[in-house]
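Today's session is about reading a structure prediction critically. Students often jump straight to the picture, but the first step is always the sequence itself: look for stretches that repeat, for charged clusters, for runs of hydrophobic residues. Only then move on to the predicted structure, which in these notes is written as discrete structure tokens rather than atom positions. Here is the chain we will use throughout the hour.
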Amino acid sequence: MGQLPPGVDPSKIPLLPPPAGKASNFIDPPSLAPIVEGVGGFFIAVETLLLILRTVSNLKTFRKLRFDDYWTIFAAVLSYGYFALILRFRPVARHQWDVPLTVATPSFYKTVFAFQMMYGVTIFFSKSSLLLLYHRIFSPDKAFRYKLYAAFIFVATTTLPTIPMYFAVCLPGPDGWTVPSLKCQDTTVFGYYQGPANIIFDLFALYLPASVIFKLNMPLRRKIGVLAVFMTGTL
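Below is the predicted structure for this chain, in token form.
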């Protein structure tokens, strides 16, 4: 937050000027926070339930956890941290002209930086944990393994590079955290490839078990039921 003229109250100044015909609302503005927090909290709860069921089942069946289980647990821990950062964006989950300038603190920009840096690693571990589970179940199929390796390389090359990319554009300059980087505030260009890449991977992750299951000698209804079990992993 830069220097303001004497006597100016930053709590009455919006981050961005309102468009024509609009006025800033700092009291009860419309906000996306309830929707984001509700949907995110729901999926965190589902993720936790499935993780507990998987862990307990493996401990009872095999008396131990395997590598992909630990990988999945670590991915879950990362998702909890990522969601915790999302919760900190509640004050800005509204039109920017409804956000007072007092929000623009060094603490806020550090949160933005941490959020951007965690994105790639969180997505990578979450998606690759599903591939590791597939590898344990379907590893005897050589052709399937090659598909898994290709998928792993794809998810790694479309998520992990975002870490140095965001680091390069979001790390503050000599003025420190008091002056936000305009590049970091506008990182939508990264979404032009991240969005399609995520969709491609999710569709391929559904195709992988289906390509094996539908070759099995069992009734169609049972094949669909087995595939539905694997589809829970896409959550």
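Discussion point for the tutorial: The two ends are 39 Å apart (CA to CA).
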